[in-house]
Design brief:
- There is one protein chain.
- This protein has about 400 residues and is α/β, with parallel strands linked by helices.
- It has a six-stranded mixed sheet with strand order 6-5-4-1-15-16.
- The longest helix is centred in the last third of the chain and has 20 residues.
- The protein is elongated and about 95 Å long.
- The protein starts with a strand and ends with a helix.
- The C terminus is likely disordered.
- Belongs to the SbcD family.
Amino acid sequence: MRLLHTSDWHLGRGFHRVSMLDAQREFLGHLLATVEEERVDAVLVAGDVYDRAVPPLAAVALFDEALHGLAQLGVPTVMISGNHDSARRLGVGSGLMRHAGVHLRTDPEGCGTPVLLSDEHGDVACYGLPYLEPALASAALGAEGSGHTAVLRAAMDRVRADLASRPPTTRSVVLAHAFVHGGESSDSERDITVGGVSSVPASVFDGVHYAALGHLHGCQTISERVRYSGSPLAYSFSEAAHRKSMWLVDLDAAGSVEARRVGCPVPRPLARLRGSLEELLHDPAHAPHEEAWVEATLTDAARPHAPMARLAERFPHTVSLVFDPDPAPETGTDVSYARRLKGRSDQEIAEDFVGHVRTGRTADDRERRMLGEALEAARAEDASGEAPERAEARG
């Protein structure tokens, strides 16, 4: 049986205020084309269909298009809710959708009830484990503990109990939305540490032939039988090095797994550039990134004038600007504060302070004079024990 494993669509999410709806629509068209071209037997969507519990109407309309497209292909689809989804909202109409071959699994108590798929070798029991928030799912599942591992173990106990009641030739697949030990995270995943330690051991999925995971946005292999598809699109610059893809998974008669990656369309590449503004504007090495979405980190000692507008002349799709000045050599963190001050006059120390708080723009002549006068007044007060203006009035 051939399965197409995808997850983390995040319909409705933007990228640094840039709408991603067109890119998401392109991906979904690519998914439908892949189902046809690769003769896929079933589609697995491992959570985070939407980006928010209450998605924008345009995202709901896009999801509706995707459901119609999948139903028209006549290929069964199994879909679970993720931590970004509202399980109740996503599950509305699931009874009707089932008749069209779209199986939504959003209720934790249904973990042990599979979608039964069949091929010439027999049945494949496909179990959907929606995102299990420990505080909400622990009691319903009878978990022996209050953390993520405890609730996932309880859910998988139901899966294994159901499998034990089926013929031994039954192959098994689990969809889950969780952070598994060994997975590599990125900046665009919402933290799921609330309710206990977030990551769970891969061993919780022992006893099934394939675990189709969602939540982490990088496509990755935890083991031959436990994999993340990752998100089909990049949603943060921390994903700049990702190759976005889906898993095409073949299960043979004995349940052995063979998986290969199917690439996803790239709406626009991502580039993280670092250097002074002049370097970024003129270095020919940056030419390949001129049409990319750019995150520019400027290392100038003083903030340049209108940096975003100037960067946009060369990189029109600059969407993020970060200031991270390179430290001056003489003020490196490996030199103690006392050593940096040794042998320097009060005037020099005051002028250095002005340069430090203004990120490299040192005091001008007028400011030096003012600093000198203030230091002289302070010395005079220290010597006489009273402020100079009071001493002058008394004289």
